[in-house]
């Protein structure tokens, strides 16, 4: 039977069967294909816009110290650059009193150690529900240092009871390190730590401890090593009951108690700061393994309790760099400054304090953050230490 030409044309232009959506999408009609692609791109852009809108709404909950206008998000590569030379500084050779020693070290000149390959962020845990608005004492002080050259993240704890000199609004005073936030907010706290340990702090992030319980619960809890004596102390002195062992799963309330107990140890703040670093490390690990909904819930809780001098665009930029450049896979290293030759506990007047050999402590902190041999502090024989200026130390 002879087929007519018209029938052949109709067969060639016949639409594919609806049962094959792939074929339907790539149907030979160019207008239809373009239309489908247009709708597909529109849907993708809409999802992206909604996602960015959601992220933006989360970030809007943060209390910012700086203006967020006129910035763009950038994702530079992790290129290692050469650092400029820094001016050498020496320890104190003469001092007639502890206060004179602390003042001279804080104002001895020299350059704060810094590097274009390192980002230093000070995490401040505040001990008051209203601390972001009204001030408060910094209960936890941890410097997180990301080194793109060594591909490590160092966490350095500072003792809250360290006796130090601080400049509050142009007036000098002496007291415990954590009180500098109470008297002069974040500016005075950062200035005090920078002058004591001779490091440049790029940013700070302050968080109310009242948020920790909900954040940890939103991530499904966290796992830390708990010593037997720590569990026994918590079980005996609080309403919480926890187990001990190398990998103990803690709820938010349990983790907060674990991080804040102070009187279970004979080594003052040393073990307390160690527990705080354990909790921060466990939080990071929990976040890495969390689902999208868990992360969303945790961030929604966290940002309402955060104050920072980072801008919104800087947060987005660093988050993008962390993913693009593999920062999330960097090794986390804890850097305590708790050796017996660095600090001692005792009394100054009627206050129980931590007294530090600040030049030695600063040298070790610099080398932990920037690398062995990268300190610009020179320690000479016969130098004066804080311990020799106060009886009982």
Residue fraction in strands: 15-25%
Strand order of the largest sheet: 1-11-8-3-4-5-12
Radius of gyration: 28 Å
The percentage helix is: 25-40%
What coarse outline follows from CA principal-axis ratios? globular
Structural class label: alpha/beta
Largest sheet: 7 strands, mixed
Low-confidence stretches: 1-19, 21-28, 32-52
Distance between the termini: 113 Å
The topology string of helices and strands comes to: HHHEEHEHEEEEHEHEHEHHHEHEEEHE
Could you tell me the mean pLDDT? 80
Question: Count of DSSP helices?
Answer: 13
Number of extended strands: 15
Description:
The N and C termini lie far apart (113 Å). With 393 residues, this protein is an alpha/beta fold. A 7-stranded mixed β-sheet has the order 1-11-8-3-4-5-12, with helices on both faces. Residues 1-19, 21-28 and 32-52 have low confidence and may be disordered. It has 13 helices and 15 strands.
Which tags fit this structure?
single chain; 393 residues; alpha/beta; seven-stranded mixed beta sheet; two-stranded parallel ribbon
Give the topology, please.
Layout (H helix, E strand, L loop, with lengths): L4 H8 L8 H5 L4 H30 L3 E2 L24 E2 L7 H9 L11 E9 L4 H4 L3 E10 L4 E6 L5 E6 L2 E6 L2 H19 L5 E6 L3 H7 L3 E5 L1 H10 L7 E6 L1 H9 L9 H19 L3 H11 L3 E3 L3 H13 L6 E4 L8 E6 L2 E6 L1 H13 L6 E2 L15
Parallel strand pairs: 1-11, 2-15, 3-8, 5-12
Antiparallel strand pairs: 3-4, 4-5, 6-7, 8-11, 9-10, 13-14
């Amino acid at each position: 039977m002879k087929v007519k030409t018209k029938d052949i044309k109709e067969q060639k232009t016949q639409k594919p069967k609806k049962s094959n959506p792939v074929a339907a999408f790539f149907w030979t009609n160019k207008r239809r294909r373009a239309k489908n692609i247009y709708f597909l791109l529109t849907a993708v852009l809409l999802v992206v816009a909604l996602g960015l809108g959601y992220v933006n709404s989360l970030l809007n909950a943060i209390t910012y110290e700086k203006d967020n206008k006129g910035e763009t998000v950038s994702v530079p590569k992790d290129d290692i650059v050469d650092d400029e030379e820094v001016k050498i500084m020496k320890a104190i050779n003469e001092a007639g009193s502890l206060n004179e020693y602390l003042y001279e070290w804080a104002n001895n000149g020299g350059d704060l150690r810094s590097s274009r390959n390192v980002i230093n962020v000070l995490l401040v845990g505040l001990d008051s529900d209203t601390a972001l608005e009204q001030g408060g004492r910094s209960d936890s002080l941890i410097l997180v240092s990301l080194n793109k050259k060594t591909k490590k993240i160092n966490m350095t704890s500072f003792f809250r009871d360290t006796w130090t000199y601080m400049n509050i609004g142009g007036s000098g005073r002496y007291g415990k390190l954590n009180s500098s936030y109470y008297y002069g907010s974040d500016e005075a706290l950062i200035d005090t730590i920078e002058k004591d340990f001779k490091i440049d702090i790029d940013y700070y992030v302050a968080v109310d401890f009242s948020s920790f319980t909900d954040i940890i619960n939103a991530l499904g809890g966290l796992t830390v090593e708990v010593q037997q004596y720590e569990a026994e102390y918590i079980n005996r002195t609080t309403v919480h009951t926890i187990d001990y062992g190398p990998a103990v799963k803690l709820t938010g309330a349990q983790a907060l108690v674990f991080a804040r107990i102070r009187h279970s140890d004979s080594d003052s703040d040393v073990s307390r700061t160690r527990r705080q670093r354990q909790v921060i490390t466990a939080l990071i690990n929990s976040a890495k393994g969390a689902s999208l909904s868990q992360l969303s819930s945790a961030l929604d809780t966290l940002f309402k309790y955060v104050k920072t001098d980072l801008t919104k665009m800087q947060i987005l930029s660093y988050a993008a760099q962390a993913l693009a450049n593999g920062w999330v896979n960097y090794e986390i290293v804890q850097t305590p400054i708790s050796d017996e030759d660095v600090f001692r506990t005792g009394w100054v007047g009627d206050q129980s304090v931590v007294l530090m050999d600040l030049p030695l402590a600063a040298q070790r902190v610099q080398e932990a953050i920037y690398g062995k041999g990268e300190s610009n502090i020179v320690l000479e024989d016969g130098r004066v230490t804080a311990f020799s200026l106060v009886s009982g130390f």
